[in-house]
């Protein structure tokens, strides 16, 4: 039997959380998608812990590369879809 300490459990939990949690602006299949990331949603940048507020989701006509425009005091940030996995809902 393996005994895990507090540090081991925290590390394991964070690893699972980072692999499974990411921002996706939509739920559902291609035909039945629902926009779930909306204005005023709080998201957290996982590596730094900085919290941003969603201003709007920018969708191209072909839905190929959505972007999320966010803000925090003194800064605005445009998050490309390739970096959604670095953020989680707050």
Shape: extended
Compressed to H and E, one letter per element, the order equals HEEEEEEE
**Nearest-angstrom radius of gyration?**
16 Å
Query: Tell me about the biggest sheet?
Result: 5 strands, antiparallel
| Class from helix and strand fractions | alpha+beta
Q: Mean pLDDT across all residues, rounded?
A: 77
Per DSSP E runs of 2 or more residues, the count of β-strands stands at 7
Write a structural description.
The chain is of the alpha+beta class. The protein has one domain. The protein is 17% helix and 34% strand. It contains one helix and seven strands. The strands form two sheets. Strands 6-5-4-3-7 form a five-stranded antiparallel sheet, with no helix packed on it. A two-stranded antiparallel ribbon has the order 1-2. A hairpin with an 8-residue loop joins β4 (51-58) and β5 (67-72). The relative contact order is 0.20.
Summarize the structure.
This protein is an alpha+beta fold and 90 residues long.
Highlighted features:
alpha+beta, two-stranded antiparallel ribbon, five-stranded antiparallel β-sheet
SSE layout and pairings?
Layout (H helix, E strand, L loop, with lengths): L5 H15 L5 E2 L6 E2 L6 E4 L5 E8 L8 E6 L2 E6 L6 E3 L1
Antiparallel strand pairs: 1-2, 3-4, 3-7, 4-5, 5-6
